[in-house]
Amino acid sequence: MSSVKVENVKKDFGELSVLKDINLTIEKGEVVCIIGPSGSGKSTFLRCLNHLEKLTSGKIYIDDELVFHRENDKSVVKTEKEKLVEIRTKIGMVFQRFNLFPHKTVLENVTLSPMVVKKVGKEEIEKKAYELLDMVGLRDKADEYPNRLSGGQQQRVAIARALAMDPEIMLFDEATSALDPELVGEVLEVMKNLAKKHSMTMIVVTHEMGFAKEVADRVIFMADGVVVEEGPARELIDNPKHERTKKFLNKVL
Ligand SMILES: Nc1ncnc2c1ncn2[C@@H]1O[C@H](COP(=O)(O)OP(=O)(O)OP(=O)(O)O)[C@@H](O)[C@H]1O
């Protein structure tokens, strides 16, 4: 488990200012849901946390260690390449599109990165992969190829694959948005289990308000690249303070 601190983070795409001075602290073991209208910068924020996007300016700390740092004028990225790999192994990410390796079996999808990146032995990682596949309810699919699985099953494999790296922090970027409605529940169930039983630091961008309310310790409402409001999940969803939050929740609930 790790904590994350974000200081004065800004991200521009050309003329477009997508993140405008974000300041947040996420504690060890905390489950945080980020909600907000489409285009408000939620995905970009997550992608900045593991450096899939370079910051325009600001600082990101993991466990009080400054890991990403960029100044406006000098374009200095503090992080060296090897360090980046080390940091990325601490941060697992699950995307909207599962991006499994199509020519690898489910088991191989889960074991590949730990073997290649962390040099974990085959026997050890396979044992762990089976445990993870058990956890996501897919042990019996270990030898299947991804195209033989439903979207919900593929997404559960993607979660197992991310967990196989033993991450300290898990980022979920609209993990259920691309799924048929009847498959959403099975993926949320796995995420819920992870949050409740495995005390993992989780940052979840989601449109699932029920999930946010039930599972999150804290909800952050973002709009137009700023954090408009944050607070305990139930409090924020049932009793939002800002007009912008109220408007958004009225629309989606
Ligand atoms: N690589 C990029 N290049 C240029 N613009 C981008 C890029 N990535 C995102 N944007 C823009 O940044 C803004 C925020 O996008 P982002 O995906 O972070 O929003 P979001 O809140 O996650 O939205 P959604 O809920 O629809 O996924 C959008 O206007 C988007 O078009």
Automatic annotation (TrEMBL):
One of its GO terms (molecular function) is ATP binding. InterPro entries: AAA+_ATPase (IPR003593), ABC_ATPase_HisP-typ (IPR030679), ABC_transporter-like_ATP-bd (IPR003439), ABC_transporter-like_CS (IPR017871), Ectoine_EhuA (IPR014343), MetN_ABC_transporter-like (IPR050086), P-loop_NTPase (IPR027417). Its main location: membrane. Residues 4-249 form the ABC transporter domain. CDD domains: ABC_HisP_GlnQ. It is a peripheral membrane protein. GO terms for cellular component: plasma membrane. It is found in: Cell membrane. The keyword Membrane applies. Keywords: Amino-acid transport, ATP-binding, Cell membrane, Membrane, Nucleotide-binding, Transport. Belongs to the ABC transporter superfamily. This is ABC transporter, ATP-binding protein. The lineage of its organism: Bacteria, Bacillati, Bacillota, Clostridia, Eubacteriales.
